[in-house]
Amino acid sequence: MRLLSWEEFNSCVQKIAYLCRDKDFSGVYGVPRGGLCLAVSISHILRIPFLQDPAPNSLVVDDVYETGLTLDTFREIPDVTAFVWLSKVECGWWNAIEVCAPEEWIVFPWEEPLFAKEEEEFYRLNRN
Fold first, then answer.
1. Which of 35, 50, 65, 103 could bridge 87 with an S-S bond, Cβ 3.0-4.6 Å?
2. Is Transferase given among the entry's keywords (predicted)?
3. Cα(76)–Cα(79) distance, rounded to whole angstroms?
4. Which residue has the higher pLDDT, 124 or 14?
5. Who has greater pLDDT, 1 or 11?
6. Structural domain harbouring 29
């Protein structure tokens, strides 16, 4: 189990902002729930609107790419750029700040570590 810190979160936000600094986005959309913290922070740093819905030429962010079921729903939006903090597979059409092992259980700073083991067990039982 890997516990991520707010310092690592800040570093991730800074990296995404740096990589996107020269792009002229219509705004940033955060995939609920994990992408919301990233989107709010990135909207402040890049000084772009926080979007309630994804739009053409927007930046879409999420915390993790596991199966692609969530992020792939945004793939057909014209000129969308997608970033995740962590990807559990090698990147395809999206970008990742870090690629990790598929079996690694991640606890993000906004999640409650006390419930992490229980949530992991529930997730794995429902995936098999």
1. 65
2. yes
3. 8
4. 14
5. 11
6. 2-127
pTM summary value? 0.91
Comparing CA positions, the residue from 34, 30, 62, 68 lying closest to residue 49 is 30
Dihedral through CA 83, CA 88, CA 90, CA 96, nearest 10? 20
Tell me the torsion sign for CA atoms 111, 115, 120, 126: negative
The answer, yes or no, to whether residue 25 has pLDDT greater than 70, is yes
* Amino acid at position 1, single letter: M
For 78-102, what is each residue's pLDDT tens digit? 999 999 999 999 999 999 999 999 9
CA–CA gap between residue 99 and residue 101 (Å, rounded): 7
User: What kind and span of H or E run contains 95?
Assistant: strand 95-99
Q: How far apart are CA 93 and CA 60, in angstroms?
A: 12
* Angstrom distance (rounded) from CA 20 to CA 82: 11
How many other C-beta atoms lie within 10 A of the C-beta of residue 4?
18
CATH of the domain at 117: 3.40.50.2020
Amino acid making up residue 104: E
Asked if 95 and 73 touch (Cβ cutoff 8 Å), the reply is: no
